[in-house]
Specification:
The protein is an all-beta fold. It has strands at 31-32, 48-53, 56-57, 72-77, 84-85, 101-106, 109-110, 123-128, 135-136, 152-157, 160-161, 176-181, 188-189, 205-210, 213-214, 229-234, 241-242, 258-263, 266-267, 283-288, 295-296, 312-317, 320-321, 335-340, 347-348, 364-369, 372-374, 377-378, 389-394, 401-402, 418-423, 426-427, 437-442. Helix content is 0%, strand content 27%. The chain starts with 30 loop residues before the first strand and ends in a 41-residue tail after the last strand.
Length: 483
């Protein structure tokens, strides 16, 4: 402010300062973060853009104020020419006319130098002609041959079943077949042979004559009409006759080959005079009981013992060689059983106590052992079946672990030296090592302090009650008017 003085000499000037200062805009200025990395290019080829950003960070409790700088910049990238596909070719012919086929079309990737492949498929397939195909029914059975010999014919048929009445497709191949059959020549009889000698010299025998049916290879004699054999009675006069054979005598041996006999007598007719008229022998002998006499084979080897210890059984066998369907039996037993491996079996001892867990928390392992014993004495583990050591997990509870520290609290004073604190939490079972609270010194800025008073100024008046003053400064940045 200005002091306006009356136009009079020796008039005292206006009391008080002509300028007053006070602090303003005390909030810290905003600051810029570092630039971020470049973003991904918007295109892989053909010219794209990328950008990077930074942020304007405002202090806590401050009034928002722009940093007055650019927060985002961009630039071009991936300027190289992009690879491109040619146009698709026409579809190929379908691989099937019906029943579901495949057709495809292709295209080529036109690549500039130093560029990778095109994005997308170079070949495309799709189903085609999916309508059902017409199908043949099964062939019918062959008809009966038109001739039994000298060549005839047979036929069989099938039908084409269409998927629908309007289908333009048809089954490939003929709907009937014909083949030749019975190509063998028809059989013919040879002339009859002479009569065979009569089967008996008397008392009505039989004589026979034959003829053959001449047929082609693989033919059947039954195809000739008529008989291939003709019989006739002969020598009908009465003969001397044998009585019935007696029963066989007992065999001279029960095995190993013996003999037995039977007899008959010749009964002459009234007109006969000699026994010699009977044809044949009055006594017959034959071998009997030809089978080898029963006898044991050698014993087989002993079978493996049923137990490896503690007492088991083993056995061996032998076979009786006897005549087929014979009643004889070998003396003695066919099977022999004996005890074996009677010594006591090895067995595991009881499990030992579990060892302490390898960890107190977070998942550890403990084990226990046992040994293989016979009668209380340790033996080779190989003689017992099963593990000698067992493991199991233990102390599965989560170990105590500190969480991340919280952010530091605000300083306890706004100027001068104060303190900040931060805390963390202990998760899991048990106590975490260390403190859950941490403290540190802080000082955002020094507190303002008064400087010593300056000297008194000269009195404003030499008489009549004047004024004098003295000043002091608050901090190094305080400004005061001159007196």
């Amino acid at each position: 402010r200005d002091c306006i003085l009356p136009d009079v000499r020796n008039v005292q000037q206006c009391p008080g300062p002509d300028k007053i200062s006070e602090e303003c805009n005390e909030d810290p200025c905003p600051s810029l973060t570092e630039w971020s990395d470049w973003s991904e290019c918007s295109l892989t080829c053909g010219g794209g853009t990328r950008s990077k950003r930074r942020e304007c960070v405002y202090p806590r409790n401050s009034v928002k104020n722009d940093c007055l700088e650019r927060l985002e910049i961009s630039e071009s990238c991936n300027q190289q020419v992009c690879p491109a596909f040619t146009e698709w070719t026409d579809w190929t012919e379908c691989t099937k006319t019906c029943g579901g086929g495949v057709r495809k079309k292709v295209r080529e990737c036109v690549l500039p130098k130093s560029v990778g492949g095109c994005l997308g498929d170079s070949e495309y397939e799709e189903a085609c002609n999916e309508q059902s195909c017409p199908v043949w029914t099964d062939w019918t059975e062959w008809t009966e041959c038109t001739k039994s010999c000298d060549g005839g014919t047979q036929r069989r048929e099938r039908k084409c079943v269409l998927p629908n009445e309007k289908s333009a497709l048809f089954c490939p191949g003929p709907d009937n077949e014909e083949r030749k059959c019975n190509l063998n020549r028809c059989p013919t009889w040879t002339s009859w042979t002479e009569w065979t000698p009569c089967t008996k010299t008397c008392n009505s025998g039989m004589k026979t004559k034959l003829r053959e049916c001449i047929i082609p290879k693989y033919g059947n004699q039954s195809l000739c009409e008529g008989e291939s054999l003709r019989n006739e009675v002969c020598n009908t006069e009465e003969c001397p006759s044998w009585t019935e054979w007696t029963d066989w005598t007992p065999c001279t041996k029960t095995c190993g080959g013996g003999s037995r006999t039977k007899v008959r007598e010749c009964v002459l007719p009234k007109s006969g005079t000699s026994e010699t008229l009977c044809v044949g022998e009055k006594e017959a002998t034959e071998e009997c009981n030809l089978d080898t006499c029963p006898d044991w084979t050698d014993w087989t080897e002993w079978t493996p013992c049923t137990e490896t210890c503690g007492g088991g059984n083993k056995k061996r066998t032998r076979e009786c060689i006897t005549q087929r369907n014979g009643d004889s039996r070998c003396e003695g037993e066919r099977e022999e059983v004996a005890t074996c491996n009677e010594e006591n079996c090895p067995a595991f001892s009881s499990w030992s106590e579990w060892t302490p867990c390898s960890k107190s928390c977070g998942g550890g392992v403990r084990d226990r052992e046992r040994e293989c014993q016979v009668d209380g004495e340790p033996v080779c583990t190989c003689q017992c079946f099963g593990p000698i050591q067992e493991f199991e997990s233990c102390s599965q509870d989560q170990c105590p672990e500190w969480s991340e520290w919280n952010r530091w609290s605000s300083c306890s004073v706004t100027c001068g030296e104060g303190t900040q604190t931060r805390v963390r939490a202990c998760a899991g079972v048990g106590e975490c090592p260390g403190e859950e609270r941490e403290e540190r010194e802080c000082k955002e800025r020094s507190c303002p302090t008064w400087s010593p008073w300056g000297d008194w100024s000269s009195c404003s008046a030499s008489c009549g009650k004047g004024v004098r003053d003295r000043v002091r400064k608050c901090g190094s940045s305080a400004r005061y008017l001159d007196s």
